[in-house]
Amino acid sequence: MRKENDRPLHENRVDQPFATLNRFHILVHVSVTLAVLYYRVSRLPLLLQLSFTTLAWILLIGSELLLFFLWILAQAYRWRPISRTVFPERLPEDGSLPPIDVFIVTADPDKEPTVEVMNTLISIMSLDYPTSKLHVYLSDDGGSPITLSATRLAYDFARSWVPFCRRYKIETRYPAAYFSGSNVESVGSPEFQEERQRIKLLYESFKKNVEKEKDKTKSTQVMTKRVQDQPSCIEIIKGDQEMSTSFEKQAEIPLLVYVSREKRKNHPHHFKAGALNVLLRISGIISNSPYILVLDCDMYTNNPASVRQAMCFHLDPHLSPSLAFVQFPQNFHNISKNDIYCAELRSVFEIQWKGCDGLKGPILSGTGFYIKRNALYGARPGQKSTREGFNSTEIAELKQSFGSSNEFIASFLHNRRNDLDNRATTYACSQEATLLASCTYEIDTQWGEQMGFLYGSVVEDYFTGFHLHCRGWNSAYYIPPSPAFLGSVPTSFSDTLIQRKRWMYGLLEVGFSRFCPLTFGISSATCMLQNMCYAWQAFQPLDSFSLLCYGIIPQLCFLNGISLFPEVSSPWFAAFVAVHLSSLSQHLREVLYSKGSLRTWWNELRFWMIISVTAHLFACLNIIMKLVGMKGVINFDLTNKAVRETQIQMYENGIFDFEGTSLLLIPLTTLSILNVATLIGGGCRVIVQKSLHDLFGQLYISCFILLISYPVLEGIIIRRDKGRVPTSITLWSIMLTVILLLLFG
Ligand SMILES: O=c1ccn([C@@H]2O[C@H](COP(=O)(O)OP(=O)(O)O[C@H]3O[C@H](CO)[C@@H](O)[C@H](O)[C@H]3O)[C@@H](O)[C@H]2O)c(=O)[nH]1
Ligand SMILES: [Mn+2]
């Protein structure tokens, strides 16, 4: 019989029959697409004399080839999707569990409301794990006094909250959600009731005090715009000893460290990746845990069991030596029922990451992952994480990679793992910590290039994870029965556009660098399919070219009576229909498989087209500008987490909020208007000339786009509220449409 601790901590299985259906679908789709491409190419020579038609034809072939190329890359996700199960009850007892450091990053108390960030912090401190093995680090990139004082207040509240949650096994550990009234008030013993009431009052007063601090800082005008020039500040949060009851004094709660790194105007700070690397170093000389959980400031703990679930992978002796990180899906608490901006990222977290998981593992997703510290230090799989000692040449080499701090390098030594309390108090405020958090520390080191989170792209998560996979590491993806973490999504169209543009730009930065996933790492990683997954991410914004062509050319040709598709009775027409139906049905099948509805399917289809000709297009333009040496760099503009009431209402009701969308919207509105104009003009011609037979394909495309762009047209023509399309944008778009019609009409 096998011993208890020999039983596996996790299991996985290939998603069947989904995977087989996928492979069958690939076969069908490739066949019909090849037919279409054959038709296009074989007709090309016949057209060589007619210039406008030829150009149109060539652009359409280009668009179709590009879409086909992206589609092929995306099939790597469909090849071998897997699902995982864990058995946390089989983990070793608490005493033998490894310590964990948690990194939470925040940057701006205006865009990231302090009370919510503190709620996140408190929920993380109450994770279901031995408190002495949990160390929480909060990075405040804004260096704002309000965040520091709120952190102290949060710590005081956590001293009551954490023991309360543990004693009564509270499931909801995000105080704001727990007290939001959705919980049944009257269940539980009288003793519990009383305790709950007491904690609730403490929570209310905690919130009030944070607001008070906010007012205070506002009135003394310390709260400026995001400070770019600030000294470092590192503090071990101790809390107010006098305020707590004797029970809470004894109760252990996780170590909490506040870190605000030094920032100077003429030193690049590398945004979130830079902040995480500072935490990596500071935590290295304090708690130095072998595993790290990274969270954005809005990603609170919804299910305190995630640590143990992650440990089921990290502590598996077979998997562990090559496992760099365990990624949890990003789930969100403020998604509306009719998610018009597709913020849920269903395809990513329900389809794509599962697909990668059957290869080398999910792509690092910025937040909600448990990563091995050693993997971030540039180690290769299986390399020992700690050493017994170094000789002087080794020390010199290490300093070249990791910078000059002796303390930090000593943290690699085996015998440095004990004595946390002492180290915490000694080092937190020491010169060493100040050195490690200084803006010059990384100069001439390999931080951001080989070590820690990498700086080469604004999507530091994707880029860092890609390097880990190329170095031979694997990752695991686990979707727990109830979401481990919940974050917030942008709820206006303009915020969505800014976020997507930043992501797409960051991905293109990697795609068009020497780290292009189609070439880089192919030799070492030996997993072609995994690299295809990375390549699809990197090149997905290129679909903007295809969609732009498909939004202009068939329409202009329709207006001019030029046919671009085979006539309805031709068998070639059937090939086009088959490709169209095949891609729609593949998408629909996946949506239904991941428990979406028809409406989800339609919303995603519409959103893809909308985002492609806006955010994707501008990301491409920016990257071209950057590549040719013009200024086109996109910075890490924070996603707004503080929202207006009207904005939420529109989002809840499924109405597009175009307020503040600026230039980014122009291609979309122009295409919508152009489509209407050509549909009317071309429609009249079809009736007069009775040419429907030849132009049916284009008529169909125009009608389809009309349906897709309905919310945009409504925002231009019908709506009168604040969220309508800004008049200036409408005027610009009309002008551009007129120009296009004059040129080609
Ligand atoms: O200079 C900066 C900029 C951002 N952040 C923090 O980074 C986190 C993510 O920023 P957010 O504005 O929420 O960006 P999102 O686009 O929502 O983030 C997604 O995309 C990022 C990559 O672009 C990933 O890093 C994130 O984990 C992922 O949630 C937040 O906690 C910020 O406070 C910093 O600490 N310093
Ligand atoms: Mn975010």
UniProtKB/TrEMBL annotation:
> What protein name is recorded for this chain?
Cellulose synthase-like protein G2 isoform X1
Q: Which PANTHER family match?
A: X-BOX TRANSCRIPTION FACTOR-RELATED
| Stored Pfam families | Cellulose_synt
Q: Which residues cross the membrane?
A: 21-41, 47-74, 605-625, 664-688, 695-713, 725-744
Q: Where in the cell is it found?
A: Endomembrane system
Q: Does the keyword Transferase apply?
A: yes
**Membrane-topology descriptor:** Multi-pass membrane protein
